[in-house]
């Protein structure tokens, strides 16, 4: 009899707990779905700003002709030709990217939009075949002295900023620099990005997708606590502040990002000394660590002291028309079941994993490097990962 009474007492408690669990999840999912229903397909009010557009390209003919050129022309016209300058640097493509960019050049000229489009004949093979192999080169485990990918990309990105700096010397100022990858976007995407946090930011980034639902740029993105993404699908982040903002569909505080399109205040790029893209020192890279120039630029940005860097989850771009369409559905981006499943996957990952094992190995390598010389310092340690990346004839490689 007593045993039966104990069983009966336990049963209601168990049922209550199950009911609480169900109600909690229903409430949480409903709240998130309301946040995710914020419209992203309505026109956004244009900010009265002058925008300098910078982009680098390599073998991007297909997307240039299918989407990118037309989107840039539409954006420049929407901003107003007196408020925009377009700089594009193309380097050694073997497809017809040069032909596509010549078409862009002629179209911008027809619209009287100022631009600087540079088409370089220097290929990757030319870059890796030089005799003088000093700064930016590294001795790799495969017994060669090879050109590091990140210093090379930094050089190209810095070239796109030279017209901005020349215009500044002539007394012309811009409010924002807009860095565009080879992504599908439209004018409203850009206006929405520029409106992130009412336009008050050290940087604002989109979310980029190549194979949805996984986001693409895992190399440069770090959450508010400086960690890499927890998962490659929504809600992405480990840090509580970043994760909660993503759940609310609000601008997400992060330490660094790139994600296809980035807007940054122009001031630091035309100050003295000017903000520049860079790689980590070659001597540190020799320890088999690397950091994205697109992460380091945020660490070096002096505005990060007074302003924040954000990912805007309402600005989603794609590396193809199909990817862009997949992240711009007519209805909600996520169903109730997908939200529930993602929330619990995120929780379990946070409970069962730690970033310290991965980050600790990199930290030990940095510590050993610092111990070699008092001059060895690297502010961008959160950007570093356990990789060595070098340029090769047909792209780049891990070694």
From TrEMBL:
Source taxon at top rank: Eukaryota
Name this polypeptide is given: Glycosyltransferase family 69 protein
Organism: Macroventuria anomochaeta
Lineage of producing organism: Eukaryota, Fungi, Dikarya, Ascomycota, Pezizomycotina
């Amino acid at each position: 009899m007593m045993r039966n009474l104990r069983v009966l007492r336990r049963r209601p408690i168990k049922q209550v707990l199950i009911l609480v669990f169900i109600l909690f999840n229903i409430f949480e999912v409903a709240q998130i779905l309301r946040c995710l229903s914020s419209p992203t397909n309505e026109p956004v009010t244009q900010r009265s700003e002058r925008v300098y557009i910078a982009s680098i390209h390599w073998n991007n003919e297909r997307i240039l002709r299918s989407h990118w050129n037309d989107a840039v022309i539409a954006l420049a016209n929407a901003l107003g030709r007196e408020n925009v300058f377009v700089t594009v640097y193309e380097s050694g493509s073997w497809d017809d990217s040069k032909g596509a960019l010549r078409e862009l050049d002629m179209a911008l000229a027809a619209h009287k939009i100022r631009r600087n489009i540079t088409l370089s004949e220097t290929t990757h093979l030319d870059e890796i075949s030089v005799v003088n192999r000093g700064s930016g080169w590294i001795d790799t485990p495969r017994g060669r002295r090879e050109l590091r990918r990140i210093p090379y990309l930094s050089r190209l990105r810095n070239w796109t900023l030279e017209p901005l700096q020349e215009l500044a010397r002539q007394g012309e100022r811009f409010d924002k620099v807009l860095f565009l990858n080879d992504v599908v976007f439209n004018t409203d995407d850009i206006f929405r990005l520029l409106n992130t946090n009412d336009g008050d930011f050290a940087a604002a980034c989109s979310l980029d997708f190549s194979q949805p639902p996984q986001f693409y740029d895992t190399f440069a993105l770090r959450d508010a606590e400086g960690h890499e993404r927890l998962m490659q699908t929504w809600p992405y982040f480990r840090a509580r502040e970043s994760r909660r903002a993503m759940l609310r569909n609000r601008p997400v505080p992060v330490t660094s990002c790139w994600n296809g399109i980035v807007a940054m205040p122009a001031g630091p790029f035309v100050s003295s000394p000017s903000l520049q893209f860079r790689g980590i020192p070659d001597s540190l890279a020799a320890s088999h660590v690397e950091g994205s120039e697109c992460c380091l630029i945020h660490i070096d940005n002096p505005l990060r002291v007074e302003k924040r860097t954000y990912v805007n989850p309402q600005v989603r771009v794609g590396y193809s028309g199909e990817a862009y369409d997949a992240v711009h559905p007519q209805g909600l981006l996520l169903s109730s079941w997908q939200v529930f499943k993602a929330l619990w996957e995120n929780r379990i990952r946070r409970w069962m994993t730690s970033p310290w094992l991965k980050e600790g190995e990199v930290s030990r390598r940095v510590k050993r490097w610092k111990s070699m010389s008092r001059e060895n310092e690297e502010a961008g340690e959160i950007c570093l990962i356990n990789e060595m990346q070098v340029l090769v004839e047909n792209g780049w490689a891990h070694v």
